[in-house]
């Protein structure tokens, strides 16, 4: 049986030229030496062989050395681990026993602690002779193979023809540049425009090829404004000037709507899917800049073609090889496997799943009050009103402009009595002002990132001269979290939540508008090694701070612009500074699908576009689509015209109000999906092929998406469907208190509804230890596509009849197509937390 299925006529796209962004401020691959070197290597150039294979501490361990080691290059150490549910972890690093110049950075606090309990401790391995290889059992019908010469690692099925799933170094492109010791006269500097990178340890990049078998397309590796299915970037039929997909967190002003250029976040996780309906995945845990090529068929003439394989080239400036192979085989299996490594999405408070109203900036308390009252006047629901940087005293975070916002607590309380919240912005750049309490404390305690000479880094951002909190340190993160207490954040209340912007980090006068790569973090870690994770640690510290503020009782809400694997555990994200253009509306869908696929399910795009002034039709259409974004927020630049939903004429106001009402009508469904994501990692917003994995027509569809498994949003020529051809349907509902962590202790309701043979039943599917009582009565039940004309409905165990009617669908802004039969059961008298049956007579 299928769940309730809706197909809504919403999207209307037109072509329009995008505003240009300043490409010259950012490096291309040819201007990035490690990328240029890696791309120029020919297949088969890797000469490493695996030797001294053994089992150590439950892992398969080997040394990697050049076959003809005339240059006496130090060996690398390979370690392969196996985990339950089809996960293989491969790590390669320098040999620490040989005292390299320093230890390479290993990204902390991303892999969840629960993963270790799922480790399968290896006790032995099998050997194969043709070619020489070591083989370990993965479980679930798979095995991992380390081929000795030439070195290669792959996962394959154990039975049948031992089909390969994912492999590394099948084309011999692996390269690992070892750290250097700078001698007198050595000059390892790199220059870009007016900036110089000292590179004290020389070149330290890593690159390798990864192949996905039985695959039609690959997806993932956000954040880019481009198609959902990743396009080839190198090889036959691809322009020589084509760039790889870049992963380097940057503040990109008015980004292009079609480009492989990196944006605000980086998640090096790729998913493949093919005509067999099977999926697999590959994840590289690395926080340095990364570039990834999708190689066109025929790129390697020596390897031939026609094997339904997609080949990719992964390149990083620094770090270690710390990679995960996910065997699938179903699409949802892959995302579950990834979630078991990096964690599932945090369960949001119920209010956070509603509509958010934001602008740079609501100018004062009177403006806030007027906007709030207008929502009531026009019967438009909303839950959160946001304040951007202008609410502060001179861009000093944790402060208020005393002239514009003299009574912040009273302002928040006026919203709170209506059940509404406020969000204020707190960015990582701290104004360098000796009279500013936060700067003074951070300076005295040595909590800032340092420049290459060891002094507090001084960059330029919204406040002018600024320094940046060093979020790599757990001690500093804990200190930062304490800034959100009511004592330290004067004027804050329990109904105030936080927005972390500019946390890539953005540095207006820095190279590529960010922090220099040779800046230093605690422990001597270079910024180049941790760059992509900086915003993640900032998001983590802020979220943990709100939990501390509430003494561990209430769930936090923190929006972040920068993302990294694990971000899903700490809050929501949005796609940054988009533009009021039809093409930006269009590209929001593949961007959000990609984020959901890679763990970041609580995501959205600014409704109407951040830059520019949308024409009324575009704004209306954006609200109609945005009502199905997991994170639903209207936002705009301060140079744009005001665009609250009531400012565009009666008819457009009605359409936008209907769209927002639709969201609120569907909130129980959305909240249930957020709980599913919290438990399993399966996203709220899903590509069609996640629900229909063998339908090849869905594999490259960029404009349609599923909300859960029961709501399909698609372009015009569509209809509304609920019951399948067998007149059957099923679905689930999840309810908790909407704000606390009590759901983790079993305080929730989880019900399944099944309609079959004219009978609708509600049954409990929560575990025995889960319990939450609710007096909530179901007001109405709507069945779409019911073929017969019933006379009545019998409710059991109440043994009473309920009102029924046949007619058009009227539920928020949802509209059924003409000819669709809609049966409504009104006031059945049953509670949401009880078992019951309704028979259609």
Largest β sheet strand count, sense and barrel closure: 10 strands, antiparallel
CATH superfamily of the domain at 33-342: glycosyl hydrolase (family 31)
Query: For this structure, what is the CATH class of the domain at 33-342?
Result: Mainly Beta
* CATH third-level topology of the domain at 33-342: Immunoglobulin-like
* Alpha carbon gap, first and last residue: 22 Å
**Helical amount among residues, as a percent range?**
10-25%
Count every helix, treating DSSP H or I runs of 4 or more residues as helices: 13
Structural class label: alpha+beta
Radius of gyration: 28 Å
The CATH architecture name of the domain at 33-342 reads: Sandwich
Q: Estimate what percentage of residues fall within beta strands.
A: 25-35%
- Which regions have little confidence, pLDDT < 50, spanning 5+ residues? 1-20, 718-722
**What's the overall average pLDDT, rounded?**
92
- Total strand count, please? 44
Please state the overall shape, judged from the principal axes of the Cα atoms: globular
Describe the structure.
This protein is α+β, with helices and mostly antiparallel strands. Among the domains are: 33-342, glycosyl hydrolase (family 31) (Immunoglobulin-like), CATH 2.60.40; 720-840, Golgi alpha-mannosidase II (Immunoglobulin-like, Sandwich), CATH 2.60.40.1180. The protein is 17% helix and 26% strand. Strands 7, 8, 9, 10, 11, 12, 15, 17, 20 and 21 form a ten-stranded antiparallel beta sheet that branches. α6 (474-482) crosses α8 (534-549) and α10 (616-626) runs parallel beside α11. It is globular, with a radius of gyration of 28 Å. The two termini are 22 Å apart. The model is unreliable at 1-20 and 718-722 (pLDDT under 50).
């Amino acid at each position: 049986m299928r769940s309730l299925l809706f197909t809504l006529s919403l999207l209307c796209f037109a072509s329009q030229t995008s505003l240009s962004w300043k490409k010259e401020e950012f490096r291309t691959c040819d201007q990035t030496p490690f990328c240029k070197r890696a791309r120029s290597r020919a297949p088969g150039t890797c000469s490493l062989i695996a030797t001294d294979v053994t089992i150590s501490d439950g892992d398969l361990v080997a040394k990697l050395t050049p076959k003809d080691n005339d240059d006496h290059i130090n060996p690398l150490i390979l370690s392969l681990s196996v985990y339950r549910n089809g996960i293989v972890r491969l790590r390669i690093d320098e040999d620490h026993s040989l005292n390299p110049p320093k230890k390479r950075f290993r990204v902390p606090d991303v892999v969840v602690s629960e993963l270790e309990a799922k480790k399968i401790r290896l006790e032995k391995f099998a050997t194969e002779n043709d070619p020489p290889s070591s083989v370990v059992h993965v479980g679930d019908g798979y095995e991992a193979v380390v081929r000795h010469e030439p070195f290669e690692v792959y996962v394959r099925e154990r039975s049948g023809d031992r089909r390969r799933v994912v492999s590394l170094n099948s084309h011999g492109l692996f390269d690992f540049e070892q750290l250097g010791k700078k001698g007198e006269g050595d000059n390892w500097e790199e220059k870009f425009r007016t900036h110089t990178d000292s590179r004290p340890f020389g070149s330290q990049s890593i690159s390798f090829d990864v192949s996905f078998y039985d695959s039609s397309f690959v997806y993932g590796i956000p954040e880019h404004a481009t198609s959902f299915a990743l396009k080839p970037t190198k090889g036959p039929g691809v322009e020589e000037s084509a760039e790889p997909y870049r992963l380097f967190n940057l503040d990109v002003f008015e980004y292009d709507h079609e480009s492989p250029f990196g944006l605000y976040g980086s998640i090096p996780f790729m998913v493949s899917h093919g005509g067999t309906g099977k999926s697999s995945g590959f994840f590289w845990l690395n926080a340095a800049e990364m570039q990834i090529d999708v190689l066109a068929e025929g790129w390697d003439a020596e390897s031939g073609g026609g094997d339904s394989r997609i080949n990719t080239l992964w390149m990083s400036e620094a770090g270690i090889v710390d990679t995960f192979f996910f065997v699938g085989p179903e699409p949802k299996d892959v995302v579950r496997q990834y979630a078991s490594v990096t964690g599932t999405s945090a369960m949001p408070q119920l209010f956070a799943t509603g509509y958010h109203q934001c602008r740079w900036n609501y100018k004062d308390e009177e403006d806030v009050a007027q906007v709030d009252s207008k929502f009531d006047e026009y019967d438009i629901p909303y839950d959160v009103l946001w304040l951007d940087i202008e609410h502060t005293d001179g861009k000093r975070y944790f402060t208020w402009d005393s002239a514009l916002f003299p009574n912040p607590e009273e302002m928040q309380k006026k919203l709170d009595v209506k059940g509404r919240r406020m969000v204020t912005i707190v960015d990582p750049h701290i104004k360098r002002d000796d009279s500013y309490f936060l700067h003074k404390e951070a300076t005295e305690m040595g909590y800032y990132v340092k420049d290459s000479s060891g002094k507090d880094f001084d960059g330029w951002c919204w406040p002018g001269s600024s320094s940046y909190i060093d979020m790599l340190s757990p001690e500093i993160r804990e200190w930062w979290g304490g800034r959100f207490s009511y004592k330290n954040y004067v004027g804050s209340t329990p109904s105030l939540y936080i927005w972390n912007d500019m946390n890539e980090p953005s540095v207006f006068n820095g190279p590529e508008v960010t922090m220099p790569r040779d800046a230093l973090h605690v422990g001597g870690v270079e910024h180049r090694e941790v760059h992509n994770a900086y915003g993640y640690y900032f998001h983590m510290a802020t979220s943990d701070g709100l939990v501390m503020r509430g003494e561990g009782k209430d769930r936090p809400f923190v929006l972040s612009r920068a993302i990294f694997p694990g971000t899903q555990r700490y809050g929501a994200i949005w796609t940054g500074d988009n533009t009021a253009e039809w093409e930006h509306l269009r590209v929001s869908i593949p961007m959000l699908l990609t984020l959901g696929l890679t763990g970041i399910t609580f995501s959205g795009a600014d409704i109407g576009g951040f830059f520019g002034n949308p024409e009324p039709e575009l704004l209306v259409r954006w609200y109609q689509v945005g009502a199905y974004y997991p994170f639903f927020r209207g936002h705009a630049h301060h140079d744009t015209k005001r665009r609250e939903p009531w400012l565009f004429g009666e008819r457009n106001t009605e359409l936008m109000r209907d769209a927002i009402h639709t969201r609120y009508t569907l909130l129980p469904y959305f909240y249930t999906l957020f709980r599913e994501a919290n438990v399993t990692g399966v996203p709220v917003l899903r590509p069609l092929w996640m629900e229909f994995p063998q339908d090849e027509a869905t594999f490259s569809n960029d404009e349609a998406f599923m909300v859960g498994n029961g709501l399909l949003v698609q372009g015009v020529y569509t209809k509304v469907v609920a019951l399948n051809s067998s007149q059957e349907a099923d679905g689930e509902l999840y309810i908790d208190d909407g704000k606390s962590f009590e759901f983790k202790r079993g305080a929730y309701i989880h019900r399944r509804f099944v309609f079959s043979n004219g009978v609708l039943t509600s049954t409990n599917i929560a575990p025995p230890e889960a319990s939450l009582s609710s007096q909530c009565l179901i007001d109405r039940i709507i069945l779409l596509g019911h073929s017969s004309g019933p006379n009545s409905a019998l409710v059991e165990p109440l043994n009473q009849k309920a009102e029924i009617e046949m007619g058009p669908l009227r539920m928020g802004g949802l509209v059924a197509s003409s000819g669709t039969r809609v049966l409504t059961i009104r006031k059945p008298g049953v509670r949401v937390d009880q078992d019951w049956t309704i028979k259609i007579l």
